[in-house]
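REQUEST ID: PR-0412
SUBMITTED BY: lab tech R.K.
PRIORITY: routine
TASK: structure prediction, single protein chain
INPUT:
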Amino acid sequence: MAVSASDLNILLNTFIGDSSTDRISAAERLAFHTEATFWLLEELGNEHMVDSYDLSFVNGVHQYKITSAVADLLVGADLRQPEEDHYMSFTRKSSRELAEELGNAQITRSWAIDRYDGDSYLMVSHKTPNPSFQIATFDTLTADGGGSTWTVDAATSDATNATADSIEFKQGSGCLNYDLDVSQDGTNRGTVYNDYTTTLDLSQHEDLSSFIFRVYIPDVTYTTSYTLTWSSDASGTPGGLTNYWSASVTTAANGTAFVNGWNRIKVDWPDATMTGTPDASVIQYLQIDVNYGASQGDDTDYRIDDMYITKPETLKFHYVSAYLGVDTNGTDINAFTATTDVPFFSGVYDSYKHVVAHKAASLAFYSLRLRDEALVEETEAFRALNRYRKNFESGKTREEKSFKVAGVNLANTRARFNRR
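STATUS: complete
OUTPUT:
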């Protein structure tokens, strides 16, 4: 049988002994049901509340911004790796513990949820078995492509003064360093390129893999994007290619905005635009552009280091959804605003309506300063909760104790009424 917010109201009215809106308005009743249902979500975590998200994991990138992709994240449940037709679970750790391990280069097949600055991040310590291939080390200007030279495009871009930097780098023994002279060409772009003497066979990565590399931005204020171009044309030069792939990114590999200093960049081959008929088995030209706004000034010490290509591995992230239910149009909601709204447990575990209504009654009584009545209803809510907790399997693992849903004062509510 389907349960709606109207059915919750019927129980609430019974528990508080009042169906009028003299003391408690219709809007307040819906607000109490909202907070009570969030409380149930946080406390119980049954399997039918668990949703999933496919994470495209690549070696070397251990933090993924999931604020938009998993906007309904309440708490994490599990991270699983497909192994033939079975799934292998990762170990759940605190974000602090995992950050320390990653800082010490310890790969432990584990995961954590990190939340800061209003965003959510999935942290993963893992090394995928999928193939990876080193594209460029940038240790010296001639370290890559069979001894060919990394060169700045001083004719059609603002890049100038390419050098090998053995002081500030991320991998190997050095990185590529170059400057910007914005009056040199005025294209709002700084370009470096390499016409490889030795070709790269990337055919097993075509339309599947991601290019990963590091860039150092001295001042990120006007930086807008990075563009990677790869081509099978021989003796390629900027602007002279006829057969190539090209793709731009506007954020760092983990989904965050570019920052001053080192950034890891991820360019996905499936997102690239193909021009002409390039051959992935004989790649012999690479080009990297930093793009910026018209207000960009001259600057020094842009850097590039450690480029490789790797095939992503899909990991299945399971989490408890923060959506309370749906409206009459079937749209997910995070607050009840109409008596026709349907809670998440409707048609699955209809008995939860008693837990929610008792909790809502305790909130209603507390709002009226009827403390004893509030405590009685809180006790009834926990009794019902514990009864169902035994009967229904949980799919939730705990996060930090300080976590709560924004705008819902679960901690204060529990502190007022907790009599377990």
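NOTES: DSSP finds six helices and 23 strands in the chain.
REVIEWED BY: pending
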